[in-house]
């Protein structure tokens, strides 16, 4: 179980321009991978924005998903962050058509997001109502995450309909969760899920 990792359109090694992408387009990327390249139920592992998209995949293709593992899940995060900006700043971004979303993960120090990207992303928010996902879910989040608050993982756990949900908080974990112990935890979490699912079939 578990499809290989991939980069969304306009990200990493994939073709396309980041500036022309939307959450909806990336959601289609995930669904096309599931539909065309996988056979049988999958365990999806999604980090940050990938965690948000992982939830959408599970909502759209319940029969294709055996379980979910989220790492620093950024559900609704861009939209929530935008809406917390002062109204004047929001209007300024709307007029300019661009939002320089701060990040420590590239040289520029920001991701250039269009105003249209934010508006389109609003259509894909999941935390405003119960999330119709019933498979096992494991959510791992670092409490020292400076990009995506760990409380989002708690909100996801609260909103999903599944009863089989564990949230694992790493007290000194950062956003990338790239320390040796973090990686070990992720691998062990996936292995445990595979063992549990194997005993059910």
From TrEMBL:
Cell location? Mitochondrion
Domain AB hydrolase-1 residue range list:
6-73
The protein's predominant localisation is mitochondrion
Question: EC?
Answer: 3.1.1.93, 3.1.2.22
One Pfam family recorded for the sequence = Abhydrolase_1
Q: What InterPro entries does this protein's entry cite?
A: AB_hydrolase_1 (IPR000073), AB_hydrolase_fold (IPR029058), ABHD10_acyl-thioesterase (IPR052382)
Reactions performed catalytically: S-hexadecanoyl-L-cysteinyl-[protein] + H2O = L-cysteinyl-[protein] + hexadecanoate + H(+); mycophenolic acid O-acyl-beta-D-glucuronide + H2O = mycophenolate + D-glucuronate + H(+)
Q: Which Gene3D superfamilies match?
A: alpha/beta hydrolase
Keywords of the record, alphabetical order, are: Hydrolase, Mitochondrion, Transit peptide
Annotated function: Acts as an acyl-protein thioesterase that hydrolyzes fatty acids from acylated residues in proteins. Regulates the mitochondrial S-depalmitoylation of the nucleophilic active site residue of peroxiredoxin-5/PRDX5, a key antioxidant protein, therefore modulating mitochondrial antioxidant ability. Also catalyzes the deglucuronidation of mycophenolic acid acyl-glucuronide, an active metabolite of the immunosuppressant drug mycophenolate.
To which protein family does this belong? Belongs to the AB hydrolase superfamily.
Q: Report the protein name in the record.
A: Palmitoyl-protein thioesterase ABHD10, mitochondrial
Query: Which organism does this sequence originate in?
Result: Willisornis vidua
